[in-house]
Amino acid sequence: MPAALSDLLVLDFSRVLAGPYATMVLADLGARVIKIEQPGSGDETRQWGPPFAENGLSAYFIAVNRNKQSVTLNLKHPAGQAIARKLARQADVLIENFLPGTMTRLGLGYEELRLSNPGLIYCSITGYGQYGPDAARAGYDTVIQAEGGLMSITGEPDGQPLKTGVAVADITTGLYAATSILAALHYRSQSGEGQYIDLALFDVQLSWLANVASAYLVSGNPPKRYGNSHSTIVPYQPFATADGWIMIAVGNDRQFARLCAVLGRPDWPADERFATNPARVKHRELLIPLIAAIIAHEPTAVWIERLRAAEVPCGPVNDIPTALHSPQAQARAMVQTIDGVRVVGPAPKFSATPASIRSAPPALGADTEAVLQELGYTLEDINALRSAGAV
Q1: Has this prediction a pTM greater than 0.90?
Q2: Strand ranges across the sheet with 121-126
Q3: Distance of CA 22 to CAs 87, 112, 149, 180, 311, Å?
Q4: pLDDT digits (tens, 9 = 90+) for 95-113
Q5: Of the candidates 4, 56, 62, the residue with the CA atom closest to the CA atom of residue 336
Q6: Mean pLDDT of the chain
């Protein structure tokens, strides 16, 4: 079956996580992605381990670099820059995450490249964007989580601010990059014109504060930490069972009534302190311990069976191995093996143009020779470029 983006060529000058995640999304959808890496070292995450797979690649690098080709170019060498410009003339998309101004100094900025390729979509990912008082600062996910307010609302009410377990500022920026690029490609299909996309981790972090930011903008009250509880819905949190934890997410009064029936407390929905969600939020300090005391007497599996039968939203608090090997994950092909390497599968399921994993993450420079030959370089040329330190 055809892939949705199989006619696109993407040049990936990014490293670490946000940019590579974006290009992996595009690659899963069929785009040809050529990853440009520094000779001898490549993407820093190649060395970010353990763990390392049997082929020597780090688990971190494997996570976001499948379906790509690796070409080594020394972008400080004039010949390396010339090769990059040749590739850019053919490309549909270019992604980079250097500090502002770096690509321009290398002769690879948007304004220069668009002269020979006016349809080019050029996406720059930085910590703070191309302008503003912090533009020159490097962006690091945990610092962005701190400065963007996320850590202030993550953690127990009387505990320290916490980061999330995954680098969410990077990952969500990668997703924003992919969707922004697709929007720019759609515009190009109508106008024939490419464009420049300025994407900042800080902006993305602020953008997905969503209802929490809105609550402050509406009320003027700074949001606070609620631990695993919800600020405006009760009960909506994990509870300790006799042998583990269960997450219960009661989204409306009907679901609360069904929960109460399962808990053996059909009187609670008639209690004015618990009858409505605003009342439950007001009296959470009373209600939550009552629920917790009941839940603690039975194992997780028992509560899951009872609550799901009553159509009360709930689920076990799984560890990563359990989640990845769950029947649902298996049915959805969310773990796949390619060339002996296990990876997390693509999330979207298309009816006509399925996302797919076609190749494992590449060894450093594995495709340099083939790609340069496509550009017209002979083996003698390539050997000379290697000797000169350009590739």
Answers
A1: yes
A2: 68-72, 32-37, 9-12, 93-96, 121-126, 195-200
A3: 19, 24, 24, 10, 37
A4: 999 999 999 999 999 999 9
A5: 62
A6: 96
According to DSSP, the residues that pair with 108 across neighbouring strands are none
Is the pLDDT assigned to residue 1 strictly greater than 80?
A: no
Rounded Cα distance between 68 and 40, Å, is 18
Q: Are 378 and 370 in contact (CB under 8 A)?
A: no
Q: Which residues are CB-neighbours of 335 under 8 A, at least 6 positions away?
A: 324, 325, 329, 342, 343, 344, 345
Q: Is 266 exposed, middle or buried (0-12, 13-18, 19+ CB in 10 A)?
A: exposed
300-319 tens-digit pLDDT: 999 999 999 999 999 999 99
* Per-residue pLDDT at 2: 81
- Rounded distance, CA 112 to CA 118, Å? 10
Structure tokens at 288: 């939550």
Q: How many C-beta neighbours within 10 Å does residue 278 have?
A: 10
Closest of 134, 136, 139, 215 to residue 172, by C-alpha: 139
Cβ contact 161:146 at 8 Å: yes
Q: Which residues pair with 196 in a beta bridge?
A: 122
Q: Are 106 and 75 in contact (CB under 8 A)?
A: yes
CA distance 391 to 388: 8
As annotated, the active-site residues are 170
Q: pLDDT tens for residues 155-190?
A: 999 999 999 999 999 999 999 999 999 999 999 999
Query: What domains does the chain contain, in order, with CATH numbers?
Result: 9-208+330-388 (3.40.50.10540), 236-317 (3.30.1540.10)
Mean pLDDT, to the nearest integer, of 130-138? 96
C-beta of residue 172 within 8 angstroms of C-beta of residue 208: yes
